[in-house]
Amino acid sequence: MKKRLKYIYESIRDFIIKIFTSRTAIIGIVFCVFFVIILSRLFYLQIIKADYYKENFTLMAQKTIYSEGARGNIYDKDGNILAHNEVSYSVVMTDEIKSSDQKGEIINKIIFDTINIIESNGDRITDDFNIAFKDGKAVFKDDPVTPAITFLCNVFGLKSTEIRENGYDRYTAEQVLDYMCSDKRFDIDPEIYNLEDRIKICTVRYALSLNSYQKYISTEIASDINQYTQAAIMENRAELTGIDVKETYKRIYDYGVYYGSILGYTGYISENELGSYNSNDLGIEYQAGDIVGKTGVEASFDSYLKGTRGTETVFVDSKGSIMQVVDTTRSVSGNDLYLTLDTDLQIAFYEILEREVAGLLVSSIVNWDYVSDGTDEIVYIPVNDVYYKLLTNVCDPLEFSNPGATFREKNIYSAFMNKLKTVVQEIEKQLNDFNAPATGELTEEFNEYMYTSYNVLGDEGILNKDIMDTSDPVYIQFANEQISLREFLIHAISKNWINVSLLDSTEKYAASDELYDCLVKKLLDKIVDNTKFQENVYYFMIYNGDISPYDICMLMYDQNRLPEDDPMKANLEQGLVSPYEYVISQITDLVITPAMVALDPCSASFVLTDSATGKVKALVSYPSYDNNMLSGKIDADYWHRLNTDASAPLYNRATQALTAPGSTFKPVTAAAGLNEGVITLDTYIFDDGIFTDITPSPKCWIYPDNHGYENVSMALTDSCNFFFYSVGYKLSLADEKYMSLQGLDILEEYATQMGLNMKSGVEIEESAPKFSNTDSVRTAIGQGTSGFATVQLARYCSCIASRGQNCVLSLIDRVDDKNGKTIFRSEKTVENVVELKPEYWDAIHLGMRGVVTEGSVSGIFADSPVYIAGKTGTTQESIYRPNHSNFIGFSPYNEPEIAFACTIRNGGSSSYAAATTKDCIEYYYGYTSLEDILESGAKDIVLEGVTD
């Protein structure tokens, strides 16, 4: 600065000398005066500026502003984009308020004003708070980010054990909110802010607290805001200290439900995730406020996909305005992830699964009351059960009491409240009746109410089931419906099975009858608000005719679950179709899907692999979810529906649902029997129908008929249980003595070698397989207690197809940086090679080929151009529900290229999984088109009771 002033001074001096020595002195004098004025002004400005900085220097602070690096894109095997980013804007807040006695009050006012701006412009705040405003009061909700116990730990600053020790886990939502609004936490004055506003302010204050009020670490208040909110925030920024609009990225998933559980979704990193994410192998640093993958490959490959954040180091004044930029580092986009999956297959297979399941559902629905006695080969669905699911799973009864409810909704709600009042009064009467009848003597309706009431006490922790003695004679009587709920509860009090601390009283009851009165009052209060109890009331209202099927069908239009211009609506209104015909037609046309109905069957999965490399070409789970609704800003209503949906769309059936393999396990037993020498290729065993070497004696599925003499290939083709019972038994013999554990160990060893008894290797969430721990004879046919996911069956079948190469499955092809350079490639990994003679593999392949040419599903494949081998499997989980349907296979039979597995849970006969597989493989080889699939409705199915 001094050098610059000196230079100016010397320049002016030299200029004046020249002027005065010139002939025009007068002009020189004028110029001299002019330059003196200019010089004075320059010095004045420098002095003023210096005084300003001297006065305000201590008010300036250095601040680092972080900019998000865009996540890398995700592509399928052909380069079709599956996930990308769009620029969006968020309202964020940083803690820039000086510490003082009024700091909390100031922050609350800023937050309140900001929320009003956001909401008045049609946006809403980011809500990851576990308390909501509902029906005029504070209630707990299912939070998409934070489990309830973690939420309480964050609120009270204690460990989970301390939360329970102090009884905070028994606090109501109102009690937790009162604590958060008190001067111990956020000091939100109830005299200034109403209950709804206090919850909203707490929502933001809670989010800020998770960042521990770190200076200049911004916390999102609202995401993906519109231009009007942006403008309003910027206009009022001077009064909203710490509030800003930040450019960010919105994750877009191009194929929604078809890839939902594979790609997963993203969201803000939680406090619990920071540690695990910062332990990544690439040295990527994570901090509060980062967007990370929450599930799927978004999570498992987050360190590759995550962009590098940019930084801008600045000096800001007391109002947060940037005065000087010190340093800038640009953000860098993340790497791109390429999957092995084929999008055409994903879409086609998902649609095929839905149509197959819809066909099974339609075929099962009957227009009469039906209750399975546990012996029926086919389990039917009474249409009243469908109406019930439409009411409680498709529609939302909570909307019946909304101010904008339709006339129909109000009428149903009024009838429900009257019915609920009557039911509760009757329960109270029976609980206070010394001569109350045993639960088994009650009507089916009130028996169910009593059973649900018992469960409510357990779910609420009032009845401590952990210490309850299930061998107690009174408990056994209650379990067998031989005594009343009243008698059981009085006994439970005497046994100290009741958690007295949860009852609403500060008194110490000297008499058990006083304690019982308090327990009854507590129970009645709980069941009135219990969702399951309310649904039971609706269920019996439907069966008793208190709610008409017509009204239930029309409710779906009232609540916008179905489009208003649906032509079937007019047909129903005009009486051209009955409610039963309406339901059948809508499911057939997939206007109402199996997932919406959520009755057996409503789910299925299919996995297809490259049998030579283990690369997964398709992995489909039905039903699925739209991950666009969960990424970044979770749609709370959508999240609630997903978590309460009885079809469980968040659950990946292909990787997480474990099902007994049934007869698909028999190739393991065949391999073990041949390799261990208990049978040969020339061994023939006569099927006696009942295997009497153990008791209780299992039967062949064909009994009272039999298969006659069978060798190993014939037994695989016919799925002869008796043959494989015999092999399992022979594997268990030690010195001619049956040792089940020995047989189990051998079968487990071969199941592991063949890739079945291990995780598949796919890079998303996967359940660990469970191998049977009981009865080697039944385990040999895939019963016992084994459980495997569809993806594990696919790995196992790949091993069979490749004649013993146990390849690790993978969804990942490679990772490329932004310059297109491959920085990671997933290579073929062979876990082990099963040492089996070629002729043994020939026999197993031959038997599996026979399944589709002459076995139980030969009729399905009779006209099929595909050249495959396969194995069926039917497994029973409950005598009151349809069996699970499994099918595995590979193709072409002579030179396998692909392997596959299909599971339809509660789908009945394995032939349905075989038919689904046929349709999928014919699409794979180009014999059908996606257009043909999409134009078709539910598959036309005739139910059958065939098992294997």
Describe this structure as you would to a colleague.
The N and C termini lie far apart (94 Å). The chain is globular and about 110 Å long. A hairpin with a 5-residue loop joins strand 10 (310-316) and strand 11 (322-329). The longest helix has 32 residues, at 25-56. The chain is built from 35 helices and 27 strands. With 948 residues, it is an alpha+beta fold.
Task: Please describe the structure with a list of short key phrases separated by commas or semicolons.
single chain; 948 residues; alpha+beta; seven-stranded mixed sheet; five-stranded antiparallel sheet; 35 helices; 42% helix; globular
How do you describe this structure in short?
The chain has 948 residues and is α+β, with helices and mostly antiparallel strands. The protein contains 35 helices and 27 strands. Strands 2, 3, 6, 7, 12, 22 and 23 form a 7-stranded mixed β-sheet that branches.
Mean pLDDT score: 89
Count of extended strands: 27
β-sheet strand percentage: 5-15%
Structural class: alpha+beta
| Largest sheet composition | 7 strands, mixed
Oligomeric state of the chains present here? single chain
Radius of gyration: 35 Å
N- and C-termini, Cα separation = 94 Å
Please tally the helical runs, counting DSSP H or I stretches of 4 or more residues.
35
Which residues form runs of ≥5 with pLDDT under 50?
Answer: 42-58
Coarse morphology = globular
The percent range for helix content is 40-55%
